[in-house]
Amino acid sequence: MLLIGGMLAYGALPGGDGAQRGAGGANQIAPPVRIASAETRSIPVMTRTIGTVMANATVEIKSQTDGELIAVEFQEGQLVKKGDILFRIDPLPAQAELRQAEAQVARVQAQLASAQSDADRAAALAERGIVSMQQRDQMVAEARALTATQAADQAALERARLNLGYTTIRAPMDGKTGPYLIYPGNLVRGNTDALVVLNQVQPVKISFFLPQDQLPALQARMREGALRASLAVHSETTVAQALLDETDIVVDVDFIGNVVDERSGTIELRATFDNPDFRLVPGELVDVNVELDVLRDTIVVPRAAINIGQDGGYYVFVVGADSSVEMRPVTVQYQDETFASVGNVIQPGERVVIDGQLRLTPGIQVAIMDDAPRVPAVGEAQ
Fold first, then answer.
1. How many Å apart are CA 6 and CA 36, to the nearest integer?
2. What parts of the chain have a pLDDT lower than 50?
3. Shortest CA distance to 165 belongs to which of 67, 64, 71, 83?
4. Distances (CA, A) of 103 to 107, 110, 112, 243
């Protein structure tokens, strides 16, 4: 962290009673200021936007068979596991169809056994000339036809078993249920009526958009496997505060869109978050902070030290060893809510003014204030 501290108390400079002789030679009061020391450090280059939480997968649960909905086996908004029973359709019609299909298969099997026996006997008698070849071929054809009928009836039996299984509707994945869309007592049509919507909320995806001019940096970070995003729930805290919070959500960006929106000039990115505590909810807004680059071994000062001149340029007030100030132009390479990178015109350890700039002119001497007293914690002795 930048070290902000006081060097001299107000009024403690030479001249007595806090009086100072400024650049023009007249006695004047040294204006109080707060200072910080410039440092060499590496800072991340960040870009910020707003993202939207998306369900990792969304499924409309539908019945695959017609029938009356007789039971719902979950509560609205409940977390369910893959395979959990969600709905039950009246199984009686499907059970009747299954019994009918089983009886049909049994009947055909009996017919096939008889026809096959007749065909075998006809073949033996035909070799002895007792029956004609035409009679033999007819019996063999009947046996083959019944074999095909048996296969069709067996398929119908399997279909009847499936229809009976469809009367119990299970969750196809882990997820969170929405509200009921159809209530027990209603008739449902197969593959038509949605019964409930199931959202997979572990994990979730975060969708956000960034300007297209950042695409080269994003792609380069993606190739390096270093494209990450820091997330903060929009209603909880700001991104700047979240970056200082050890509980901040950091996720890998795993998707860059394949088209730039021609209307907004932005491209979509997505990240995946495991969401172990269900903190993020589909549709929720989150603050997204993406690291584009890292400025290594750069000179930084607090952002509060940066001033804008009438010509639009940047400058800082540098406090010398004699407590006089110098107005020094700087080039801000990058800045965020906390720090600014100012190139090499400021040297590490030089002191810059971060509070009280409005009363300063070049060459004036200042009184450097100590930090404000710390507020005691709750229950701490004062």
1. 9
2. 1-25, 236-247, 372-382
3. 64
4. 6, 11, 14, 70
Q: Which residues contact 61 (CB under 8 A, 6 or more apart)?
A: 86, 87, 169, 171, 172, 194, 195, 196, 197, 198
CA-only gyration radius of the chain, Å:
40
pLDDT given at position 116: 72
Residues 6+ apart with CB under 8 A from 169: 61, 63, 85, 86, 87, 88, 89, 195
What distance in Å separates the CA atoms of residue 158 and residue 89, rounded to the nearest whole number?
19
C-alpha–C-alpha distance, residues 307 and 316, integer Å: 6
DSSP 365: B
Length of the chain: 382
Q: Which pLDDT belongs to residue 11? A: 37
Structure tokens at 364: 């004036």
Residues 6+ apart with CB under 8 A from 178: 76, 77, 196, 197, 198, 199
Q: Which helix or strand (DSSP H or E) is residue 289 part of?
A: strand 285-302
Going by their DSSP bridges, the two strands 351-355 and 32-37 should be labelled as antiparallel
> How far is C-alpha 300 from the chain's CA centre?
32
pLDDT recorded at residue 144: 76
